[in-house]
Give the backbone structure.
Amino acid sequence: MNDTRSEILRLGEEFIRTKGYNAFSYADIAEIIKIRKATIHYYFPTKADLGTEIIKNTIQKFHTAIKEWEQYPCDIQLKNWVALYADSKKRNWICITGALSPNFDTLPLKMQIELELLINDVFSWLEKILSNGKENGIFHFDESPRLKAHLIQSLLLASLLFDKVTTNNIYEEVKNYILKE
């Protein structure tokens, strides 16, 4: 992949995860990389194209990660998932779904479609490992695996949001709560 294109994608993702999709422009990216806006348009004719590619890359990274984790028991897979949020916290980022979901209705249609695919993939995978773990006696919870997946994902996302506002390190508390199951 072209280095300039990769850098545009990297910065676009960083802006989405720190400022939000509607809070940055191609001019912001061009200024940091020291390129013309026309160069960005060459790779991504519209901001929707950039946003869509960022979500598709996230989906690809997610699928690569869960494929690598298949060899591990369900509890280790869950631990790996929760650890991804620790990386976001270190960067003072929120997850891509948390950054884009509040503006879902204003996102271009192709971004909405990809974001919905990503969220559904995450919930399906999480529900599957929770169900398998519960059936094998690894996890012990009363909720349905579907509800438990929604609760875990909601807690992780909310912890990153609240940690941006407070100094309470909510992510760490949420992580410990999720992994004690």
Notes: The chain has a mean pLDDT of 95. The chain is about 75% helix and 0% strand. The two ends are 41 Å apart (CA to CA). Residues 109-135 form the longest helix (27 residues).
